[in-house]
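Working notes for the structural subgroup meeting. M.R. asked for a predicted model of this chain before we commit to crystallization trials. I am recording the input and output together here so anyone reviewing the notebook later can reproduce the run.

Input as submitted:
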Amino acid sequence: MITVLKFVLIGVLFATFSSVCGATTVVRFEFDSLCSQAETIVLARCLDKSSLLDGDRIVTRTRFEVLELVKGAAEPQLVLTLPGGKVEGGRLHIPGIPQFEPGDQLVFFLSKPDARGSPWPMGLGQGCYRAIEEDHQESTILLQRGITPLPDGALSKAVTGKPFKVPLRQFLSQVRRSLAQPTDVR
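Returned structure, recorded in token form:
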């Protein structure tokens, strides 16, 4: 009887003090399908962001300057409105939704605009490739197996768990090569 009470007590304590874990399920893309299915592909720099209440949900509206158009059509400025953020003491975090800071430079693979007029990164974080500028050198894209879809031939060296760098211009050339392939080859 005491053993049963111990298990019940442990179960009640576990249920009381365990935290709720969130998860987001996302379709995994191959690089070529990311390129072909994206409505728009741009190189952009984050200008600013602000969180607000949109009806009964918290969203973050992030404004970007489009630096280069690779596919589709885009205005000089791009606005992404994605769920999540902090407003009036409330906070909403959705796993998988990418976060941006002013000054961030990214290559975006974007969907068609949603019902509210905002495009989304394809596959959430899969459609966001961060460009890093180090010591005033040419920007590089960080690629990591299992996180960002990799272009064919990107793993010409031994695979490690660490991200590796590809020059931005080389990455954009790979995107353009993928777009130039006939659809049945992809």
